[in-house]
Design a protein that fits this description.
Order of helices and strands: HHHEHEEHEHEEHEHEHH
Bound molecules: zinc ion
Radius of gyration: 18 Å
Helix content: 25-40%
Strand order of the largest sheet: 4-1-5-8-6-7
Structural class: alpha/beta
């Protein structure tokens, strides 16, 4: 836990202390946040994606004048960002999907608070995740989006491995979530979450692993490419802008995420939006929008696999 997380969640923490339920409620206040974004360390190799740094909702790109057209500007390896969903590249591929948290975590603080390996030390097994002001839990959200994503990928011929197949048990712990993708020799893996930041923050961000002397050192470059393609396709399919409160243009390199540090297969963690923001929450509680989120993730995974060959 970092200063930033504790500062952000100060009011929730005070409430938890008053309620005498410190363990569970402090966990409920956040979602995988903590380390300050190492924005200065992130550079974006895809030139085409650097022109959309605004936090306004995704707007159609201005049509370049013929004289300004740059045939090579589309650096996303042929990624199709809009139009019919083309998931041909996922056929025959093993894809690991990790729906964050588990609604059973709320009732088992001792189990989810135990320390587990996280690549550079230890941290809590898992957390409860956050929720909307209306009470829609992050664990339920991630499980729904993950199942929508799995259905899309399976229909396109992918071999999908899920880190959990119910929303009423405990965990698994973050190290086990990584191990499931590793053991499956997944071609690509993704964790699905939603954030619990202050209500003024909105938009999505993609966490990617930083090189920290952990097993993920071997997949840093691939995971960065995956992060960029998930970002671009998710934004295009959902209209949700990149976060206005964390990361740089939707990308947030992290050193403290066990599920990323321990991955030996290309992996990112998507925070689909901020559940404490009214606009984001309205989409997260809407099944039609959750389907768009799943489609955006699927398109990003397909674009990555198409480029990876
Ligand atoms: Zn989360």
């Amino acid at each position: 836990m970092s200063v930033r997380r504790w500062g952000r969640d100060h009011r929730q923490l005070r409430a938890a202390l008053v309620a005498g339920a410190l363990a569970v409620l402090t966990l409920a206040a956040g979602c995988g946040r903590g380390a300050a974004a190492a924005d200065a360390r992130w550079s974006e190799p895809l030139a085409a994606a650097s022109s959309d740094a605004s936090t306004s909702p995704a707007a159609p790109s201005p049509t370049p004048s013929p004289s300004a057209a740059k045939p090579s500007a589309s650096a996303n390896a042929g990624a199709v960002l809009t139009g019919p969903l083309n998931l041909a590249a996922v056929s025959g591929k093993v894809i690991a999907i990790d729906p964050g948290h588990n609604d059973g975590n709320f009732a088992h603080p001792d189990e989810i608070n135990k320390q587990v390996p996280m690549g550079t030390g230890t941290k809590e097994c898992d957390t409860t995740g956050t929720q909307t002001n209306g009470g829609y839990h992050e664990a339920a959200f991630t499980f729904d989006v993950a199942n929508r994503l799995a259905a899309l990928l399976r229909a396109a011929g992918a071999n999908v491995v899920m880190t959990r197949t119910d929303d009423n048990s405990v965990g698994p712990c973050v190290n086990v979530r990584a191990q499931i993708g590793n053991d499956a020799h997944a071609a690509v893996a993704i964790s699905i979450h939603a954030d619990g930041a202050p209500s003024t923050g909105h938009g999505f961000h993609v966490m990617e692993p930083m090189k920290v002397g952990a097993p993920s050192d071997a997949i840093i470059t691939q995971s960065n490419q995956l992060a960029l393609l998930i970002r671009d396709n998710y934004r295009a399919r959902t209209g949700i802008p990149a976060s206005n409160y964390i990361g740089t243009n939707g990308i947030n390199p992290r050193s403290d995420m066990g599920g990323l540090n321990l991955s030996t297969v290309p992996k990112v963690l998507l925070e689909c939006g901020n559940m404490r923001n009214a606009g984001d929450a309205a989409m997260e509680t809407n099944p039609t929008d959750r389907q768009k989120m799943a489609e955006g993730i699927a398109a990003g995974l397909a674009a990555y696999l198409a480029a990876a060959g």
